[in-house]
Design brief:
The complex is a heterodimer of chains A (about 90) and B (about 150). Chain A is mainly β and about 90 residues long. Chain A has 1 helix and 4 strands. Chain B has a two-stranded parallel ribbon. A two-stranded antiparallel ribbon of chain B has the order 3-4. Chain B starts with a helix and ends in a 5-residue tail after the last helix. Classes of the chains: A mainly beta (about 90), B alpha+beta (about 150). β2 of chain A pairs antiparallel with β2 of chain B.
C-alpha cells in the first residue's frame, strides 16, 4: 500500500488502478486487469490514470500512489532508463 | 533527469510535485543517485523516482515501448484535480527542455487562478499580457497581441 516500504526484490508497478469504491478507504490498490480497460484514453482534459509504484526517495524506499498527490500540480516524467545520456 | 533536478527549486516554488519514472528498479535508482546524479546536481534528485517494473504505468500512459521494454521520454502535466493538462512525448535520442515545462506550468497555474477568465497566448511568459476571453475579443486579438512580442 502507498506509504509502506515495498516488499521483496521485484516490485511490479500497479497501474492503471480503478478508482476506489466509495466505501473503501485504506484498501490496497487494485490494478485494472481487464485488457480493454488498460487501454485508457490518455489525453488532455482526461483524468490521469492512477497507479502505485515502488519509489526511491530521500535515501529510502516506499510505495507511492499518484492519487495521493491530489490538490497539487504534478509533473510526471518518464524516461528510458537510469544512466542514459540525454 | 539531472536537468529536471537542476530546476527543482523552481518546481518547489510553484508547489509542483515532480515524479520521475522509468522501468529500472528502485535499487538502480538508488545507485544512480549516489554514483552519478548527486555529482551532477548538488544534493542529487530531490523528488521520488518511481519504478515502473513491468511497464504497466508507461503502457497506461502510452509511452511504453514494448520492443525495447522501456518507457520513452513522456511528460505529463497533471492539475490538482488529477486532470491531464499537457503531454509531450519524445523518442529516445533527444532530451527535453525543462524550462518549457516550467513555463507551461506557470501558464496553466495562471489560467486556473483566473478560473479560465484569462488565457495565455502563444509564447506567453509570466509578466506578459494574457487575453481576456469573451465575444468582444473575437476578431480583435490583433489589437492586444502580436506574434513577435
Amino acid at each position: 500500500m502507498a506509504g509502506e516500504e515495498p516488499k521483496g526484490c521485484v516490485s511490479p508497478a500497479a497501474g492503471p488502478i480503478a478508482p476506489k469504491p466509495a466505501t473503501g478507504s485504506g484498501q490496497p490498490a487494485t490494478p485494472v486487469r481487464d485488457k480493454e480497460e488498460t487501454r485508457m484514453n490518455v489525453t488532455v482534459g482526461k483524468e490521469a490514470p492512477d497507479f502505485e509504484a515502488a519509489a526511491y526517495h530521500e535515501g529510502g524506499f516506499k510505495m507511492l500512489r499518484l492519487s495521493s498527490f491530489r490538490g497539487k500540480w504534478v509533473f510526471l516524467c518518464f524516461y528510458p532508463g537510469d544512466f542514459t545520456f540525454v | 533527469m539531472s536537468a529536471v533536478a537542476g530546476k527543482a527549486a523552481e518546481f518547489k516554488k510553484l508547489d509542483v510535485q515532480v515524479l520521475s519514472c522509468s522501468t529500472d528498479s528502485r535499487f538502480v535508482h538508488k545507485i544512480w543517485q549516489e554514483q552519478e546524479l548527486s555529482k551532477m546536481v548538488e544534493g542529487g534528485v530531490p523528488f521520488p523516482m518511481l519504478s515502473d517494473a513491468g511497464g504497466r504505468i508507461g503502457a497506461a500512459y502510452g509511452v511504453f515501448d514494448e520492443a525495447a521494454g522501456v518507457d520513452v521520454r513522456g511528460r505529463f502535466i497533471i492539475d490538482p484535480d488529477g486532470i491531464i493538462q499537457a503531454i509531450e512525448i519524445l523518442s529516445p535520442p533527444v532530451g527535453r527542455k525543462v524550462a518549457e515545462t516550467v513555463r507551461q506550468l506557470q501558464a496553466f497555474q495562471h489560467v486556473r487562478k483566473t478560473k479560465g477568465a484569462e488565457v495565455c497566448p502563444a509564447g506567453w511568459e509570466p509578466g506578459k499580457p494574457t487575453l481576456k476571453v469573451g465575444p468582444e475579443l473575437v476578431g480583435k486579438v490583433w489589437t492586444v497581441w502580436k506574434p513577435d512580442e
